[in-house]
Amino acid sequence: MKNTAEVVKVKDAIAWIDVQRDGDEGSVALRAATRDGQPIQLTAAETRLLAERLAKLADTLDSLTEQRRESED
C-alpha cells in the first residue's frame, strides 16, 4: 500500500489518498472520529472546508490515476 503526501485535516476528520500497487486506481481514505471513537461534529463552515479539501484531494487522485495509466501504455 502506498499513501501520498496529500493529507487533509479538519478537526479530527482526516483524509488521504491510498493507492494499492496491484493496479488499483486508488481511493480517498477518510477517518472521521474522535480519539475515543465518537463521531466528530463539524460546523457549517468546517463542513464546507472539508468538502473543499476533499474535492482537491479527488482532483489529485484523478491526476495520479491518469499519470499511472499513461506510464502503463
Q: Characteristics of this structure?
A:
single chain; alpha+beta; three-stranded antiparallel sheet; 3 strands
Describe the 3D structure.
The protein is of the alpha+beta class. The chain has one helix spanning 44-72; strands at residues 2-10, 13-19, 27-32. It has a 3-stranded antiparallel sheet, with helices on one face. Strand 1 (2-10) and strand 2 form a beta hairpin. The longest helix is centred in the last third of the chain and has 29 residues, at 44-72. It is elongated.
**How many domains in all?**
1
Task: Quote the beta fraction.
Answer: 25-35%
User: What is the averaged pLDDT score?
Assistant: 83
Order of SSEs: EEEH
Largest sheet: 3 strands, antiparallel
Q: State the low-pLDDT regions, or none.
A: none
Shape, per Cα inertia axes: elongated
Placed side by side, the strands forming the largest sheet appear as 1-2-3
Report the C-alpha radius of gyration, rounded. Answer: 14 Å
Give the N-terminus to C-terminus distance in angstroms.
Answer: 22 Å
Helix content: 25-40%
What's the number of helices? 1
Count of extended strands: 3
Helix/sheet category? alpha+beta
